[in-house]
């Protein structure tokens, strides 16, 4: 057995031992519901093991090289060292005008470590607190949406998670502050962590969230995070996801959504960077008149890898959905898109649209795209499409003839290509800054700090901070 | 200003220009006419630097520089402008952003200070008025959804913005109704000075009622076979090209 292989096998065993010990230790705190769920999930993970490319849904996504590394599975439970916690960050302003909740190497930063209750009844708090303080809500929702039992990483997450965010908006509340949830990794410890988030949006309520997966130093990490989302009848959730991970990071970020009647889910995922990024978004439209827009954008280069998997189930009639992912893939990078729209037998009057467009900048990059419709109803309007192309040479010639250099000519065309996705961001500050970030990314000028939610004075300085929420 | 000597150009081994000579001086307006497929548009593309064409021999000297050594964008920055026969639609790139980028780069190349946003917008407004471009451009993508006439007017607008020294207008009159033609011609005339030169490639004499040329050239079989003044254009309009072909045959 090779050394690398041995590391991967040990990783699984260590995880199983840790989970078993934790379940025992936490049995009193967590309640029977959660303990049972974890036990089942642990057995499931033990049986399945880490996914391999032999499985259909992992055929193009090989975790092997990322699993054969030395990880510290306890790292996120170790308190931050005093030096880091004492350093106050020079933070001028929050450029997206959001309420910021930051998890730094798995630990909640000051201001976000407790329960935040807004006047309108909205609650934001760490998952570790929610499972005790809001056990009824947890029991009603947790594990009810992330139900792909054949997925070993879902099982692992359920069995092992200790932290994440919990957001609850009661019925009939238009929450006017956007919530920004940052998961920032900057550690030499080789963090391996499962994080679990839960978002509950009550009837006729509205919420806007920005979920950020960040890392700032080229250190190995493996983050498997799951966000379960319940959107009740007539509610609306805008869910922006921004990912800027370094090249040594793997992030598996799965989002499971269940929607009630006339509800709306708008998801926009922007992937600027990352060693291995896999985003699964699974939506069930479970009430008439529900709509889901799942769109995104990825810009990969070097040896980066991204996989976007979108699965939308039209379980009932009169729902609409849209999938649009656009990508620019450069150098040796690889991208995978799997779009799956499932229209159940009685889901008549469904309107579903699915599209994936790619620009392949080099012959050495690789793009896989697989738009897929599975329809059991007979009165539906569904379309799907995919393109892989190069930049338009006639347009390049035209632009250069006006005195614009090759680099900027390409930039104009690439920005135009991704514009369709950026223009759909409804948070003006975020839209403007996304346009700028994408521009910088394409020009190769993006440092991981640019995108960080914390605007510190010196971008080269390692991030060490404590957030004072009163200043935000 | 421009001196083309014995220019030979091929595409995929097929010779399209075969020994073309042309001299253009500052302050002049030239018209190049000729039947379809004789290489008029090829000439314009080659001067612009389109790498679909291979220059097999000959030279193009522009303001003392060997133009063939320069990149497409440097030719433009040196003051060469091509008005496209078929302007390209570029969805998602706004006219403002497009022109701003072009002007910034050209000014930097020439060692000029960049324009501020205010100065740029004022400049753009002036030029729009000069060429009677009334369409709102600010948020529109380059040529996208423009009518045929608007696209051609937009070429003249860009020419006004970039203030080239030498412009080749490739069939700018084709597909224009008489009003649009008049506006395009007025724009070209308004931009004319004793420091710049314009070469119009056209099929029809009617453009030359509005843009009065100093020289009219006839292209045939990849070279200029006859040069005259404005009256040559009138003669071509009346008699077609057959008599020129006959004249050439007789010389052989």
Summary of the model, kept short:
Chain A contains ten helices and 20 strands. Chain A is of the alpha/beta class and 472 residues long. Chain B contains eight helices and twelve strands.
Describe the protein's topology.
The complex is a heterodimer of chains A (472) and B (252).
Chain A: H1 3-48, H2 64-67, H3 82-86, E1 99-104, E2 107-108, E3 116-117, E4 123-126, H4 127-133, H5 135-141, H6 152-160, E5 165-169, E6 179-185, E7 191-201, E8 206-215, E9 221-231, E10 236-244, E11 249-259, E12 264-273, E13 276-285, E14 291-300, E15 305-314, E16 320-329, E17 334-343, E18 350-360, E19 366-375, E20 380-389, H7 393-401, H8 406-422, H9 428-443, H10 448-451
Parallel strand pairs in A: 1-6, 5-7, 6-8, 7-9, 8-10, 9-11, 10-12, 11-13, 12-14, 13-15, 14-16, 15-17, 16-18, 17-19, 18-20
Antiparallel strand pairs in A: 1-2, 3-4, 4-5
Helix pairs in contact in A: 1-6, 7-8, 8-9
Chain B: E1 2-11, E2 14-24, E3 29-33, H1 40-48, E4 54-62, E5 65-66, H2 72-77, E6 80-83, E7 90-94, H3 95-109, H4 117-130, E8 141-142, H5 148-162, E9 166-170, H6 178-191, E10 197-201, E11 215-220, E12 223-228, H7 230-239, H8 242-251
Parallel strand pairs in B: 3-10, 3-11, 6-9, 9-10
Antiparallel strand pairs in B: 1-2, 1-4, 4-5, 7-8, 11-12
Helix pairs in contact in B: 5-6
Number of helices of chain B: 8
Q: How many angstroms does the end-to-end distance of chain B come to?
A: 33 Å
As laid out across the biggest beta sheet of chain B, the strand order is 6-9-10-3-11-12
Low-confidence stretches of chain A: 81-93, 451-472
Shape descriptor of chain B reads: globular
């Amino acid at each position: 057995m090779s050394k690398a292989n041995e590391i991967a096998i040990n990783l699984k065993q260590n995880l199983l031992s840790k989970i078993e010990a934790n379940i025992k230790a936490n049995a009193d705190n967590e309640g029977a519901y959660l303990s049972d769920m974890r036990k089942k999930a642990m057995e499931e993970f033990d049986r399945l093991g880490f996914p391999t490319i032999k499985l259909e849904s992992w055929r193009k996504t090989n975790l092997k090289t990322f699993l054969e590394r030395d990880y510290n599975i306890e790292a996120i439970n170790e308190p931050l060292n005093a030096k880091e916690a004492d350093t106050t960050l020079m933070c001028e302003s929050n450029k997206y005008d959001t309420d910021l909740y930051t998890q730094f190497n798995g630990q909640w930063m000051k201001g976000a470590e407790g329960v935040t209750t807004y006047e309108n009844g909205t609650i934001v708090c760490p998952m570790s607190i929610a499972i005790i303080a809001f056990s009824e809500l947890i029991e009603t929702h947790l594990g009810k949406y992330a139900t792909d039992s054949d997925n070993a990483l879902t099982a692992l997450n359920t069995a092992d998670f200790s932290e994440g965010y919990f957001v609850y908006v009661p019925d009939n509340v238009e929450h006017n502050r956007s919530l920004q949830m940052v998961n920032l990794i900057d550690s030499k410890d080789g963090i391996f962590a499962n994080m679990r988030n839960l978002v509950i949006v009550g009837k006729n309520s509205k919420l806007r969230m920005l979920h950020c997966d960040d890392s700032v130093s080229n250190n190995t990490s493996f983050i498997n995070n799951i966000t379960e989302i319940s959107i009740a009848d007539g509610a609306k959730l805008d869910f922006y996801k921004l990912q800027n991970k370094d090249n040594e990071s793997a992030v598996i970020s799965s989002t499971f959504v269940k929607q009630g009647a006339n509800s709306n889910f708008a998801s926009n995922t922007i992937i600027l960077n990352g060693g291995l990024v896999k985003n699964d978004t699974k939506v069930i439209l479970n009430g008439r008149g529900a709509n889901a827009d799942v769109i995104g954008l990825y810009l990969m280069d070097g040896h980066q890898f991204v996989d976007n998997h979108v699965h939308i189930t039209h379980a009932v009639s009169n729902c609409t959905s849209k999938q649009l992912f656009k990508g620019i893939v450069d150098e040796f990078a690889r991208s995978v898109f799997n779009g799956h729209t499932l229209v159940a037998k009685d889901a008549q009057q469904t309107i579903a649209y699915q599209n994936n467009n790619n620009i392949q900048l080099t012959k050495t990059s690789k793009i896989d795209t697989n738009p897929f419709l599975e329809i059991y109803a007979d009165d539906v309007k569904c379309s799907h499409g995919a393109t892989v192309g190069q930049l338009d040479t006639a347009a390049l010639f035209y632009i250069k003839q006006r005195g614009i250099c090759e680099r900027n000519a390409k930039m104009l065309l690439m920005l135009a290509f991704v514009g369709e996705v950026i223009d759909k961001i409804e948070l003006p500050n975020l839209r403007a800054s996304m346009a700028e970030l994408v521009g910088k990314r394409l020009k190769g000028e993006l440092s991981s700090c640019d995108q960080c939610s914390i605007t510190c004075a010196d971008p080269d300085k390692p991030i060490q901070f404590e957030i004072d929420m009163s200043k935000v | 200003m421009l001196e083309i000597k014995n220019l030979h150009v091929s595409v995929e081994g097929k010779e399209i220009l075969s020994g073309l000579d042309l001299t253009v001086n500052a302050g002049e307006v030239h018209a190049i006419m000729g039947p379809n497929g004789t290489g008029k548009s090829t000439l314009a593309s080659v001067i612009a630097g389109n790498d679909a064409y291979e220059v097999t021999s000959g030279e193009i000297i522009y303001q003392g520089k060997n133009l063939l050594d320069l990149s497409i964008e440097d030719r433009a920055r040196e003051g060469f402008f091509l008005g496209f026969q078929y302007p390209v639609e570029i969805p998602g790139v706004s006219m403002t952003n497009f022109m701003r980028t072009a002007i910034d780069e050209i000014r930097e190349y020439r060692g000029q200070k960049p324009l501020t946003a205010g100065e740029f917008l004022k400049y753009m407004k002036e030029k729009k008025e000069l060429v009677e471009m009334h369409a709102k451009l600010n948020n529109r993508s380059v040529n996208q959804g423009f009518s045929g006439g608007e696209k051609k007017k937009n070429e003249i607008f860009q020419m006004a913005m970039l203030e080239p020294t030498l412009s080749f207008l490739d069939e700018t009159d084709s597909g224009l109704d008489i009003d649009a033609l008049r506006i395009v011609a007025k724009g070209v005339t308004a931009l004319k000075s004793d420091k710049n030169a314009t070469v119009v490639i056209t099929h029809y004499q009617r453009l030359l009622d509005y843009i009065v040329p100093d020289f009219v050239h006839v292209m045939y079989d990849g070279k200029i076979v006859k040069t005259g003044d404005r009256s040559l254009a009138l003669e071509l309009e009346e008699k077609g090209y057959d008599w020129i072909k006959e004249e050439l045959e007789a010389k052989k």
